[in-house]
What we know:
Blueprint: E1 4-6, E2 13-15, H1 20-25, E3 29-32, E4 35-38, E5 52-55, E6 61-64, E7 72-74, H2 118-132, E8 142-148, H3 153-161, E9 168-174, E10 192-195, H4 201-208, E11 219-222, E12 227-228, H5 234-244, E13 252-254, H6 255-264, E14 300-301, H7 315-341
Parallel strand pairs: 8-9, 8-11, 9-10
Antiparallel strand pairs: 1-2, 3-4, 4-7, 5-6, 11-13, 12-14
Amino acid sequence: xxxxxxxxxxxxxxxxxxxxxxxxxxxxxxxxxxxxxxxxxxxxxxxxxxxxxxxxxxxxxxxxxxxxxxxxxxxxxxxxxxxxxxxxxxxxxxxxxxxxxxxxxxxxxxxxxxxxxxxxxxxxxxxxxxxxxxxxxxxxxxxxxxxxxxxxxxxxxxxxxxxxxxxxxxxxxxxxxxxxxxxxxxxxxxxxxxxxxxxxxxxxxxxxxxxxxxxxxxxxxxxxxxxxxxxxxxxxxxxxxxxxxxxxxxxxxxxxxxxxxxxxxxxxxxxxxxxxxxxxxxxxxxxxxxxxxxxxxxxxxxxxxxxxxxxxxxxxxxxxxxxxxxxxxxxxxxxxxxxxxxxxxxxxxxxxxxxxxxx
Length: 359
């Protein structure tokens, strides 16, 4: 029944309500964003075929369809009364600050019964024991997150079994949707399983590894399922990383580095190509000094295709690689555009101009 008309001046809209006769008789004032929209109608103007005559500013007459009214923005003659704005910062807190839990973790509850605060009390007992004992290395925990498919079950079992349960939480991203088939493995019950068929590692990581969720973990291992760990010891590896202050690939992020890297991951660029060129910006310090290779603990990346037609030269795999290349180009373009637009940011690693002395 009703129709809407938007003026070009202020983007105002009027919807016709009621009959045409009622509209002709009503003078309408709108107060929008400090401006007043007035409706100009010539008094005693009879309806004409195809619409009514409406007067613009001055004396110009214009024919407007009956189903539409013309809204025109004009400067207000008097200043509109200001409305009191209640800012959130002036409001009282919704609840006491001490009850807030700003972070969380991926630890699973052993039972739905028993003492709800068993973890908190255990942490208190450990803290008291640590104070009474000789100084020792504080107990820390890290997270291993791996995208998996049931076809690589044996390789994943070998990988996860390398990471001690007391030192690592485990999260599996099931890109094939198969979850139940993992239940017979010894460590499966303590792992967190997330299923979303056809998605990639970075898609999962962006949505389920928010920095506030993994804040409790010192390091986040975002690995692939086809990483061989015959010559790898996670504890010795982290000892070297802590001692040297590194970040490294296969991607392992400190807590602070992951918070930075997570924000860099694009929601729609699911393959993550191009990220490795920029992750150095998330190093805690000079990326020329705080990124390195721990050659005493090495892994082998077998490069087994996970998604896209099963590998080889299949059409599916070729299409996936094509999108990966496109995503790398898009990410590069977005970075360059963002760097150009952000006047408050200076690239600390921008190439220095060549000089005569530099050769």
